Every structure is written in structure tokens, then in C-alpha cells.
Amino acid sequence: MPVDLLSGTSIALAPLLPWALLAPLLGVAALVVLVAAIRRARGVALRLLAVLVLALALMNPSLVQEKREPIKDVAVVVVDDSPSQAIGNRRSRAEQALAELTERLKAFDDLELRVVRAGDGAGEAGAINETHLFDALNRAMADVPRRRMAGAVLITDGQIHDVPENVAKLAEIGPIHTLLTGDRDEGDRRIAVVQAPSYGLVGKPVELTIRVDDMPGRQSPDAAVTLRQDGGAPRSVRVPVGRDFRIELPVNHGGQNVLELEVEAARQELTLSNNRAAVVVNGVRDRLRVLLVSGEPHAGERTWRNLLKADPSVDLVHFTILRPPEKQDGTPIRELSLIAFPIRELFEVKLDEFDLIIFDRYRRRGVLPQMYLENIAEYVRKGGALLETSGQGYASPLSLYRTPLGSILPAAPTGQTIDRPFRPTITETGRRHPVTAGLPGDRVDGDPQWGRWFHQVEVTPNGGAVVMQGADQRPLLVLDRVGKGRVAQLASDQIWLWSRGFEGGGPQAELLRRLAHWLMKEPELEENDLRARVDGNRITVERRSLEPDPRPVTLTTPSDETTALTLTDDKTGRAVATVTANAPGIYRVSDGERTALAVVGAVNPPELADVRTTGDRMAPVTKATGGGVHWIADTADGPRPGVEVRRTRPDREQTGSGWIGLRANGDFTVTGVVDVPLLPVGAVLALVLGAMLMAWRREGR
Fold this sequence. Notes:
By secondary structure, the chain is of the alpha/beta class. It has five domains: 97 residues, no CATH class; 167 residues, Rossmann fold (3-Layer(aba) Sandwich); 96 residues, Immunoglobulins (Immunoglobulin-like); 219 residues, Rossmann fold; 72 residues, Immunoglobulins (Immunoglobulin-like, Sandwich). 19% of the residues lie in helices and 34% in strands. An eight-stranded mixed sheet has the order 17-16-18-19-25-24-23-21. Strands 5-4-6-7-34 form a five-stranded parallel sheet, with helices on both faces. It has a five-stranded mixed sheet with strand order 9-15-14-11-12, with no helix packed on it. The radius of gyration is 44 Å and the shape is elongated. This is Glutamine amidotransferase domain-containing protein. It comes from Azospirillum doebereinerae. InterPro entries: Class_I_gatase-like. Keywords: Coiled coil, Membrane, Transmembrane, Transmembrane helix.
């Protein structure tokens, strides 16, 4: 067992005999010397000397000298690059403090410096909502044993959102110091959304609760808040400061309804970024009311009914004209229906309550008066939706085109029909239109993988977009906008063949679903539109257009900085670009004609909840680890600006006025050992024999 004398030097004992034999021998020898001492025999001191020298020789002591190589301690500096650091001159102070700290730490040969940055939003999806400095600290020292940690320095404004609950465990890291980049006694105003629903029914308002706060104290009794919905005209309301306030948001359409809120600046402001907020309410329809009018019974009726009845959110009103007025077959009146069909109620009184009207193989038979058909045309112009699927009757003198509906239908009949097999195909325009783009089974370089149809009405388009074609490349599906409404015309009644699986069937369910949703103005199916989607801190800008559009779009950040984005066209009507947001807030995307909004981050991101510089969040950490909190602004003046750095022993103070300490652990590795015997064998034997001879001679006198 070695015994330390000096750092790196020790004496090691390597007995020549086992301790089980050596200990009794030494005990007997000691007993003999003790008995001689009790009898006061001559030469006791010499006998004791001989025994001690012999015992020491048998223990075989040696001097062990270790060759040690010191191991550098590790100090981690975490720089806060979060959005709140962009306020005032905080970022410049942080960079200056980092430069001064780096220069001073390089003067210590036994210290390794690691610098990490955090909070810039380039990492995980939600990084820009909160400042996570301790996550960055843990990653930086993941491969470092805790006995080598000298400590850490956080250069930040103090708004840190991942301070561990159990701060006692941080003591093993060493002292954790905080250098604050802001100024004392800062003030700010912010607006927060206290309560907001995620969904709302189209046509009905939802209630929001907002709050305006002045920090640290109220600067005025109320403030003007500007509201802007979907980028429209602004309106202003007065909101009391420091109290919850309720406002109403009308849900005008399906999809995202974005409400922007901006409160006027106060006398004392750090940033205007938290003077803005946004609420996204997804508009959903309570019930979709569909009116289906079948001109005559046929196999395709079941396709329409199955599609519409399968959706529980659809209220379907369906009637089929089984017995037109001109039919005279002698059926007694008492055997006919006793309930008159509510034509006036449907086509005059409650017409505007329907979201979609479908005419399936309808022809003029005097059931619907011209006045009601004119009502339907006006209903479309005001924002309604109409789908017409043509049967044989559309090519006849009884065609719907020869009624008031002809003024809104996008295709005129030629009077001819095509009765031979054909396979519907997607046009070039259709491959860019969201209704038909990417339909399952469509192939750009060959015939589509779906079944044939056998009947088509020959039509000539007089407006709109032809997205599908049939026999002889004649228009098959035409889409058009009329006034505020939309019209779709399918020049065949044989889509039911796909639903029956004829020749493998086809994508009838997907096609009709998209068609119905486009007619009812679902935002996801707009063919000429600009939108922005948010996934964490990534913004995907998408522009849909029926014609390629090479123009770049302009992205405006919450701090009103603008960037030009070039979109990549994927040949399906979509041009896309992706950008990473580095701050929470409202981003605007514009191509000069349309504007889209993207709300990045939580409704009330903690990063902007309170942007004042504070050391309160780090107070428990500094107390547990022995670190300190220093304001960079307080140490900026002097012959040598900045905080002084000292290497300190673990049991000493780690911080003081104007200085911080980093623990000196003194760890090392042993690279070699030198072993030198302390008692040469010859000298020991001579000393023992000499002592024994002198003792024998003394006793012999």
C-alpha cells in the first residue's frame, strides 16, 4: 500500500515474506527485546536496532515517483441568440462580452473553452417560442466528466425558459455565472390572447379574450387596438390596460380565418414585436346542405346518393322526377302521392340555404317553372354552387342550356352525342387544377389506369377551364366562376361505371369529393391562390396557378424585414418555397396581387411574454452553484472593460464584485512510474550483523 508524501511521490511496501509469516516473526523479535529490556540486560538498544533494521528490510520499502500530465478543465460559454436578444444593443453587448471573455480565458493553459449558441430557432421545431440555454449547456458538456468541469457562463437577457427544477444537481458542474445584456429598469407593453377557440362555425362569430399589459406599471388607462381580419380593412377598438377584454371574430369562410391584433405603442417600449398578436380560427361548416335533382331514374343515382349520404355532415335533399306533368297513363288520382312536392319552398323560399345544387340528367319537362330556374341562376351569381351532369337530354331541344341556367353554364351543346367507348383523360390545365391534379391512376406518359365510359354529350366551352376530356379530346369536365359563385359541368352521366368497378373502376369518389369541395369554396382547392403553411418554425409558401408564374414572392418578417423568395414549380400547378423563421410572430407573403399570412409560434409565445432583462430566473441556479449575476452595462467602463476571470479552488468563493471564478480541479493522468528501493541489500545486512556483534560484545563484558 503506497503512502503519499508529496504530489506524485509515495513510499510503497513490498514485503519479502508473506504478512502471515512476517508478523509473527516480528512479534517474537519484539518480545525478546522487551524481555531483555525488563531484565535490564546490556545491549538492548543494539538488539532493538538490529530488529528494526531487519524488519524494515523484510518490508522492502521503495520510493515511487509518478510522472503526471495535467488534464485541462472545461469551461462552457452559452450565448443567447434568441429573438429577444435583438432588442436594443443586447446582441452587440453579448458579442463584446464573448470576445472579452474568450481573450481572458485563453490566458489559462489548464482550461479548455467551449462556446455554444442557442435560441436562434435553427434547431428543433419549437425553439423560437422559448429560450433553452440549459439544453445547449448539457449538449456542450455531454462528453465531459463532471470532475473536469470548471463552470459555465451564460450571456443572456435572463429570459430563460428551461431552468431545471432541481437546481441542486447543477452544483457538480461548477459555478454557473450569468452576464446580463440588457439595462436596468426597462419597461414594455404587450398584447396577449387570453382565450381563443381553435374552430368556429362558418357564418357564426366566435368570442376571443385579449389583454393589454404595461410592465412594470400602467402607463395609460386604455390603449387603441387595431384589428385586421384576413388582411382586410382595419378597425380600431379601445381596450382597458391590465384587464381582460372580449371581442367577436366573424368566421366568414371555411379554412383558416386569421385575425391580426396590434396595440399602439406606449411611452416606454423595448420592442413592438409583442405589440402584435394573431389568432387563427379554422372555419368549419355545421351541416352542408345539398339539393340533388334527378331528371329521370338511372343507374348513376346510387353513386350520387352513396357519395353524399356517406358524409355525416351532409344534409341531402333528393328528388327524382318519375312522372312529368305531360304523362297521361290513366293512373287514378287517389293512387298518386298525397303530399305535394314543396317546389316553391325549395326553389324560392329556402334556396339560399343550400350550399350546393346538383342537376343530374335533368331536362325541361315543365316541373320547374322558368322563374325558379332564374332563381337558381341568381343564387349562383350571389355565391352559390351548381353542378350539372349531362345526359341525353342536354343535347336535345329540352336542354337546360335553353333555360335561364344557360347564362351561367360554361359549355353549350352542339346537339350531337358520342356513343362509343373512350377513356377520360386529364388535360394540361387539369394537371395544374387542384380538382384533377394527381388523381389516382392518372399517368403523364400514357393512358390512365381506369375504366372506359361509353356516352358523352358533345359540348363547346364558352368559358371556364376544361380539366378533363373524353372521346376525340372533346371537353368532358368544365369548371367556371360566375359572379361570386361557381359552376361545374360534366358532359357525361357515366361516372357510375367507375363506382361499379367496371374495367377496374376509377377515382370517382376522390374526383367528386374534390369537385364538391371546390364548388363550395374550400380554401385548399383554390386553383389560383397564395398560401403559407407553418410547421414548427418552418414556413412553406405555396402558390397555385393554372399558368406557370415565375415571379418571386416577398416575405415580410415580424420585424418588418423583407426577403424575396423564389418558388420552384413542380408542374402540377404548385410552386413551393420553404424558409426557416427565426422569431415568433406574423409573417406576410405577397406576390403583388395576393397576400397570405403565417403565424409562427404559440398564440402567446413565452419568448415575447416579458422581454425585460432580469436575473430573477437565474437566482436559484447561482445560489446552488456558487455563481454570480453581473450586468454587462455595469462593467463596461474602466481601464479594462468586462468581467475579470479568476481560477479558484473548489472550497473558495466563486464570484465577487466585478469578477467571476472558474473552478481549478487539478485533475491529471499518470504517464509513467519510477520505483527506487530505499534500503540496499548489502548495507542492510552489514548494519544488522554489525548491530548484533556489538550487542553480543556488550553482553559479554
